[in-house]
Amino acid sequence: MKAFNFLVLIFVQDFGLSLGEVRSDCVCGESNTKTSGRIVNGKITTPHKYPWMAAMFLATSSSFMCGGAIISDKNILTAGHCLFYIPDPYKTYWMLGMYDRSRQDGRKYHVAHYQFHPKFINYTVYDDYDMSIVRLGERIIFDFTMRPICLPQPDDAFTGLWAVVAGWGRIAEGAGAKLASVLLETKIKVYRNDECKHKVKRLVEFNPKSMICGYENKKDACQGDSGGPFFIETHPNRYEVFGVVSFGDGCAREFPGIYGKVSNRETLNWIGRYIATSQSDTCSDSIY
């Protein structure tokens, strides 16, 4: 989460874009358990419950930096500020199929290319259209531990529903707080745009085209969770990402968490174009 304190998917739906080959031997958005599974005041997940989760590390120090989500067999969706504040994003690597951050018990993938959202803007205390996509240097071999999440239909909102945020970020606010050792999750309620605009106006100008927000008392994403997916179970054991962890005012305060909005049609078109140019393969979607 980007802090001022700096404090979210793949679609095989038809948006009129070529997304590469849609594979029939895998399905997007399937978790590895049908039971609800800690992030600040969250819960420990079971190993590999959410196989689309990805983690970015600095190659020079092996320091954990941000989260992300697998959206194809070559691409990771993350926050724009996760790459913006790194001197050289090519000197990072991604761990996929990882559960224990302290052991980095997954498979390492290096960065071949990356792209910011075309409208990404870095302001002093927050970012707008805060998304970027990474192309990995080799294809992901999908298995029990590594699979993509589904992307939403354009303008999916889910207002008033409960969504999931997961990551390996700090478990409390402050630079001295510890990072989570294993993947944590919590559920956050999605707010209406007018609620978001009112609750964040003292610090930022809420943009409903590029942002969504959510809040639950004393539960939140925190520093280190940036870039991770904000996702929801739309059908039994079928999850789609509609937000990317972006920023907030500290962690688990009364200020809601802000997420980059994936379900904007322009954003989905950008994602589709990048997947196509990456010559990536996607998985089928159980509801289409």
> Helix- and strand-based class?
mainly beta
Kindly provide the radius of gyration, computed on alpha-carbon positions and rounded to a whole number of angstroms.
17 Å
Shape: globular
Named CATH topology: Thrombin, subunit H
Give a written overview of the molecule:
By secondary structure, this protein is mostly beta strands. It has one domain (1-288): Thrombin, subunit H (Beta Barrel), CATH 2.40.10.120. The chain is built from 3 helices and 18 strands. It has helices at residues 80-84, 193-200, 265-277, and strands at residues 2-3, 22-27, 43-44, 53-58, 64-70, 75-78, 92-96, 107-116, 121-122, 127-128, 132-136, 162-167, 184-190, 211-215, 229-235, 238-248, 257-261, 282-284. Strands 12-13-14-17-16-15 form a 6-stranded antiparallel beta barrel. A 6-stranded antiparallel β-barrel has the order 4-5-6-11-8-7. A two-stranded parallel ribbon has the order 2-18. Strand 4 (53-58) and strand 5 (64-70) form a beta hairpin. Residues 1-18, 35-42 and 218-224 have low confidence and may be disordered.
